[in-house]
Design the sequence.
């Protein structure tokens, strides 16, 4: 029964995430595993129950990684599945550690907040320990009341609330005393937080290009010339549309194409001409190089005078996609570059018409504390350039979009997301979708946004809540193991 309960938690977590996207299940998903922990006293079994639930969860949510490794990584079916299962087993260790610590506190009167703190704190460790993706709180992106927490605690506040409710449900199922679930009485306080910003239309306009380039395109001079002409045509037709106010920005996404802005004179001339004709700032993804000639995944801004106005080198690279982690040299890289991509070292803001743009690339959207630093340094609009073509037709596209939407809500910034083949979208400061383009079509559209300069508590102070939860959870787990002595039971004394 305990093994089935652990698998039930994995299933509920998977159902709360796109492709299925039944978000409210996040509030009860942890309950079956916690019941299993309450039924089992052996710590080693707690670890194994959590490892099972975590491994199955990562298999069900990140199933698309197997296809990426098999096809794009060149590992074949056997190699792709083998590496994918190793990945899931490794990521499952996070929930194994959570279950071990949660099993310690489950018998205690403070089990509900302790479990929520442990879950939230361990979520914060996913990124530093190698790979992070869809956190529990992301399931609440369309829930008005929980989303009031985002600008204060980041996504981690929502994760805490869902874990708190899951722990309370577990205690109810275990018929524990009512006072042990009284912690839920704090949740109505969410209504005292400021409401989400109202729906408004942006005051500025940008042109977003979605070129829909296949991952398997074979490039030669002819196909590349036709591709760049297509980009220019789509951009000009949208930017110079009669009757519209001038667009401040033209965005080209990260693309699976040999775009070498700094080494290709013809490409530089084309982009410069586009910027001058439209009098807009043109932002594009490109391959750059550093002094050692190592490649970088970069974004470059070209000003209306045709001259480059800045360059940002991606800091958080994708494991196996843009670099091979140590001890995994046997795994092919997805990239075709002649060496590992080199990470950037600093946040760069691009100036446009007296405002500043914070541009982050693809996978970087999953790091809340990193994205908030762009707003903290003065970015008054956020831009995410991404190539989600590696996801094929999986739920990962919607997962990635929901993750990016949370970054807008945490920092109360408009977010423009330009992708190669979808989902291209504009997100308002509450995390709501303002505009989106259907995937797998080649088009360029105008979208509205506004510049916002105010800074949220999360923008200013970062992951204070998540780190506090981690410290508190560990302390409570430790206290739970301190022997208690009762005067009424002298036999329990040493």
Sequence:
């Amino acid at each position: 029964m305990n093994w089935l309960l652990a698998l039930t938690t994995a299933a509920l977590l998977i159902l709360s995430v796109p492709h299925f996207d039944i978000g409210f299940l996040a509030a009860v998903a942890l309950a079956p595993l916690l019941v299993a922990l309450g039924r089992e006293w052996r710590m080693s079994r707690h670890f194994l129950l959590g490892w099972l639930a975590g491994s199955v969860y990562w298999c069900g949510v990140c199933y698309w990684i197997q296809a990426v490794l098999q096809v794009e990584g060149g590992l074949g079916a056997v190699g792709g599945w083998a590496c994918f299962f190793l990945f899931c087993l490794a990521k499952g260790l996070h929930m194994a550690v959570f279950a071990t610590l949660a099993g310690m506190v489950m018998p205690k009167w403070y089990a509900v907040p302790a479990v929520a703190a442990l879950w939230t704190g361990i979520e914060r460790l996913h990124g530093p320990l190698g790979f992070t993706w869809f956190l529990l709180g992301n399931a609440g992106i369309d829930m008005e009341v929980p989303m009031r927490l985002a600008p204060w605690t980041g996504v981690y506040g929502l994760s805490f609330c869902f874990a708190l409710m899951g722990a309370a449900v577990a205690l109810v199922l275990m018929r524990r005393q009512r006072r042990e679930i009284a912690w839920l009485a704090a949740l109505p306080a969410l209504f005292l937080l400021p409401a989400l910003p109202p729906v408004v239309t942006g005051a500025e306009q940008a042109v977003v290009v979605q070129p829909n380039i296949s991952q398997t395109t074979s490039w030669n001079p002819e196909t590349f010339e036709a591709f760049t002409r297509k980009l220019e045509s789509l951009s000009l037709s949208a930017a110079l549309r009669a009757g519209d106010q001038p667009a401040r920005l033209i965005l080209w996404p990260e693309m699976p194409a040999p775009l070498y802005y700094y080494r290709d004179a013809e490409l530089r001339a084309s982009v410069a001409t586009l910027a001058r004709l439209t009098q807009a700032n043109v932002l594009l993804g490109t391959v750059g190089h550093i002094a050692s000639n190592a490649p970088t995944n970069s974004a470059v801004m070209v000003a209306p005078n045709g001259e480059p106005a800045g360059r940002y080198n991606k800091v958080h690279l994708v494991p196996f996609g843009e670099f091979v982690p140590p001890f995994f040299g046997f795994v092919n890289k997805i990239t075709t570059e002649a060496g590992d991509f080199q990470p950037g070292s600093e946040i760069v803001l691009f100036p446009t018409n007296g405002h500043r743009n914070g541009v982050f690339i693809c996978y970087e959207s999953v790091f809340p504390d990193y994205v908030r630093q762009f707003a903290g340094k003065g970015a008054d609009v956020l831009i995410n350039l991404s190539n989600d073509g590696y996801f094929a037709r999986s739920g990962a596209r919607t997962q990635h979009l929901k993750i990016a939407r949370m970054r807008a809500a945490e920092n109360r910034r408009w977010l423009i997301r330009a992708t190669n083949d979808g989902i291209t979208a504009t997100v308002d400061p509450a995390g709501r979708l303002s505009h989106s383009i259907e995937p797998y079509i080649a088009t360029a559209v105008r979208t509205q946004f506004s510049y916002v300069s105010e800074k949220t508590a999360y923008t200013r102070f970062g992951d204070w809540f998540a780190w506090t939860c981690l410290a508190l959870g560990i302390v409570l787990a430790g206290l739970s193991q301190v022997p208690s002595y009762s005067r009424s039971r002298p036999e329990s004394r040493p």
